[in-house]
Design a protein that fits this description.
The protein has 318 residues and is of the alpha/beta class. The chain folds into two domains: 60 residues; 255 residues, Alpha-Beta Barrel (TIM Barrel), CATH 3.20.20. 51% of the residues lie in helices and 15% in strands. The chain has ten helices and nine strands. Strands 1, 2, 3, 4, 5, 6, 7, 8 and 9 form a nine-stranded parallel β-sheet that branches. Helix 5 crosses helix 6 and helix 8 packs parallel to helix 9. It starts with a helix and ends with a helix.
């Protein structure tokens, strides 16, 4: 009888061990499944963010063909693109290039962000307001001694796939712009100027531009027209309102390819050498950073002086 009881206990213990083992295996599999699912979700989320980011750049750099005419005829508008060669100052022969790097703020590679900030050159960092890293990046850029621009989302002709919190529209009146500017500058008090993110519709509206000029003038901000549409006439309106302003000449990275970016950079330098100055816009992408890291020292050794766009605009207005 004792043997039978022991045998029964042993069988029961074995059964319990088996059940516990099965439970542990199931638990491990469940945890593994949750982990894999979360990783897939994270990967999909990152992919979606990257897709949105690339689409964002595509909207910003949709006008490329116009640059051919700019390169072939540097005096697109003598009034809008004055030469520094006519000045009598001792530094009038300097070749000045101002670079703006757009789209800081939305999630992107941390090392790439830091790489741009750490470049030992006067480069303007333009930040999209209202994003998860906008405030901290603004602080980092200012601490590094670089100029901060507001890369303000503006209404495009084509529907935007991103619902920007601080997007402004062609129909916005002075009151609405004041509200947006107050909120944006609360996040980015370091800002010294503004350039448009998208904005092909808003930037074609005269009344909107006049209201924008008032908002900029009252805050002593300079303005750069990113030229996201073939038709652009903002500079005359800005200057009439007393706002220091200019427009970009070249998009460095309309395609995310280092060969193309290098070629665009070379075109920008050729414009600067002919006219005495030029403004280029790039985006916070690793390929663009790699080209700048390679080419900035080379062009500097060739006599190119890289300056903040705010300083360039001030120089041109004197």
């Amino acid at each position: 009888m004792i043997d039978n009881k022991n045998s029964g206990h042993e069988k029961k213990n074995i059964k319990n061990i088996v059940l516990i083992t099965i439970s542990v295996v199931i638990a491990v599999l469940a945890i593994w499944y949750v982990y894999v699912s979360s990783q897939k979700s994270a990967s999909l989320a990152e992919l979606e963010k990257e897709t949105q980011f690339l689409a964002m750049i595509a909207r910003d750099v949709s006008i490329v063909s116009l640059e051919d005419s700019v390169l072939n005829d540097i005096t697109v508008s003598v009034a809008e693109k004055p030469s520094r060669r006519d000045k009598n100052s001792s530094d009038s022969n300097d070749v000045l290039v101002a670079l703006i790097i757009d789209d800081f703020g939305p999630s992107t590679n941390r090392e790439t962000i830091r790489g741009f900030i750490d470049l030992p050159y006067d480069i303007t960092i333009s930040i999209i307001p209202g994003n998860d890293r906008s405030v901290s990046i603004g602080q980092e850029v200012s601490k590094a001694g670089k100029d901060v621009f507001i890369h303000l989302p503006m209404e495009p002709k084509e529907p935007a796939s991103m619902d920007e919190r601080d997007m402004v529209y062609a129909s916005d009146d002075h009151s609405r712009l004041e509200t947006v500017f107050s909120r944006v500058l609360k996040d980015l008090p370091q800002a010294v100027g503004l350039n448009n993110h998208m904005g092909s519709r808003a930037m074609a509206d005269t009344l909107f531009l006049k209201n924008l000029a008032v908002a900029l003038k009252s805050r002593d901000l300079v303005f750069v027209d990113s030229r996201t549409d073939k038709e652009f006439f903002s500079i005359g309106i800005m200057r009439k309102a007393g706002v220091s302003a200019t427009s970009r000449d070249i998009f460095l990275d309309y395609a995310i390819d280092t060969v193309i970016i290098e070629d665009q950079f070379a075109r920008l330098i050729r414009i600067a050498r002919k006219r005495g100055w030029a403004v280029g816009i790039g985006h916070v992408k690793q390929e663009t950073l790699e080209v700048l890291q390679r080419k900035l020292p080379i062009y500097e050794n060739e006599g190119i002086k890289f300056v903040f766009v705010r300083d360039l605009i001030t120089d041109l207005s004197q």
